[in-house]
Every structure is written in structure tokens, then in C-alpha cells.
UniProtKB/TrEMBL annotation:
<dbReference type="InterPro" id="IPR014347">
    <property type="entry name" value="Tautomerase/MIF_sf"/>
</dbReference>
<dbReference type="InterPro" id="IPR037479">
    <property type="entry name" value="Tauto_MSAD"/>
</dbReference>
<dbReference type="Pfam" id="PF14552">
    <property type="entry name" value="Tautomerase_2"/>
</dbReference>
<protein>
    <submittedName>
        <fullName>4-oxalocrotonate tautomerase</fullName>
    </submittedName>
</protein>
Length: 129
């Protein structure tokens, strides 16, 4: 399971939402063998006055927070981060300097999904990648 939040300046984020969502999902699929039909993304476009960031960043500054079940290897998570930086830069021309990614992992039993604790779900994909 994965839930993804994306934050950015409204004027920059809104026009690229669909493309960015597709990029993020392709990275999840390639790095974590995530199912093609599992896409849970939420966008948080922010007014400039509500989004403070370091002076070395531009208005393209984007934060990506990924919450997922624990169990992926360090190598798989590093591959995910690497792919995100590469594809966002190549397809949207957003520099890695302007992208920050955080992965939050929690035990399956800390999730509630479809009326069940996450550790009682029958998944159609592997988590231990």
C-alpha cells in the first residue's frame, strides 16, 4: 500500500499534476513492483505566501511524501528516489535541487483499509522487494 502527498506552489504545481502523478506512479511500479492499478495521490497546491522554503530553491520546489507498508529493501527505496529525481528532471525539467522526497514506512497493522487492519488484507502484490 502507498499513499502519496505532493506539495508545491499552486501556479507551478497545478499545470503539471497529471504528468507528475504519472511519473511518480511509473517510479513506484518500476522500483517497488507496485501494481499498475494502485494509484493513491493527493496534491496540495499552495499559495506562495503559505509555502516557505530555502532561498536556494525556486518556485518549482516540490515535496513528495510517500507513506507505505514497511518491508522494502534499502536498495529498492534508493532506486525509487533515484528514478523520481531522474524522471521528474527529464520529463518536467524540475531540477533535483527543487525536489525533496520523504518515505514514511509503517507496519501493516498501523493501516486500516477496506474495513480491515492492513496486516489482515490479502494483497495482490509483494511488499518485500
Amino acid at each position: 500500500m502507498g499513499q502519496i502527498k505532493i506539495y508545491g506552489v499552486k501556479g507551478r504545481l497545478n499545470p503539471i499534476k497529471e504528468t507528475l502523478s504519472n511519473i511518480i506512479h511509473s517510479c513506484m511500479v518500476d522500483a517497488l513492483e507496485y501494481p499498475l492499478d494502485k494509484k493513491f495521490h493527493r496534491f496540495f497546491p499552495m499559495d506562495k505566501e503559505d509555502f516557505y522554503f530555502a532561498s536556494e530553491r525556486t518556485e518549482s520546489y516540490t515535496i513528495i511524501e510517500i507513506s507505505m507498508f514497511e518491508g522494502r529493501t534499502i536498495q529498492a527505496k534508493k532506486q525509487l528516489v533515484k528514478l523520481l529525481f531522474e524522471r521528474i528532471n527529464n520529463k518536467l525539467n524540475i531540477s533535483p535541487q527543487d525536489v525533496e522526497i520523504t518515505i514514511f514506512e509503517t507496519p501493516k497493522h498501523n493501516w486500516g483499509i477496506r474495513g480491515l487492519p492492513g496486516d489482515e488484507l490479502a494483497l495482490n502484490y509483494k511488499v518485500n522487494i
